[in-house]
Amino acid sequence: MLTKLLASIGIGSARVDLEVAGTAVPLGGILNGAIRIQGGNVEQRVNGIYINLVLSSAYRAGDQTRNIRRTIGTVRVGEEMVVRPGEERVYPVSFQIPFGLPISRGRTRYFLQTGLDIPQAIDPVDHDPIQIVPNREFKMFFEALKALGFREKRGSGDYNGRFQEFEYRPTTYFVRELDEIEVYPVAGERELEVVMQIDKKARGLFGSLLDELDLDERFVRFTIPYSEMDSVNGLAGMLRNIIEREYRKII
Hints:
Order of helices and strands: HEEEEEEEEEEHEEEEHEH
Number of helices: 4
Number of strands: 15
Helix content: 10-25%
CATH architecture of the largest domain: Sandwich
CATH topology of the largest domain: Immunoglobulin-like
Mean pLDDT: 85
Largest sheet: 5 strands, mixed
Number of domains: 2
CATH class of the largest domain: Mainly Beta
Strand order of the largest sheet: 2-10-9-5-6
Structural class: alpha+beta
């Protein structure tokens, strides 16, 4: 009786461990691994196994820093079972990382939360950090910005629950004209959607006034099909044309 009571609060209960083949997975990629269950001191009924993909990040909101934690999705493995004392079970797992997610960058991080659903007991849980990295075309986008001389600023990559922000400063191209650019990209299955904010460098009293009124910046939204992303240089030329065109529209 005491043994069952202790198991219900996690002492001597069954244990669960997720083993994954590699901790970095691109958007749209497949995560493969295995779940190992080790029986505890008593026989326990398990309603099922679950894996939660959990995102955590932080972002600036005025003078405050706000934290965010969100379960992106849940994968359920196996069916109802009885795990006997000392018994070991292994379940292979394989699932796709969805497109459209923020990537692991800066304060934006992911982990897998694997647990056993045990009735009337504290669920045994295992936590494993993973990295969600850009798919090939998304990576090309970052490389194209770098080819244009833009350098990512410290603290870039924060996610506020709606979009992920990447901040860049010019070092060669448009270094005299722009303060920075901010990009909010979302990588889909067939295309990259981008919102870009272009900030013009303030010059003189009039420029300072425009800066105070936020009239020295411009937002532009565009979509790049993956079929048109043949090379980094070609993509860099496309981005350069967009930036030059929109810069001319700022007062």
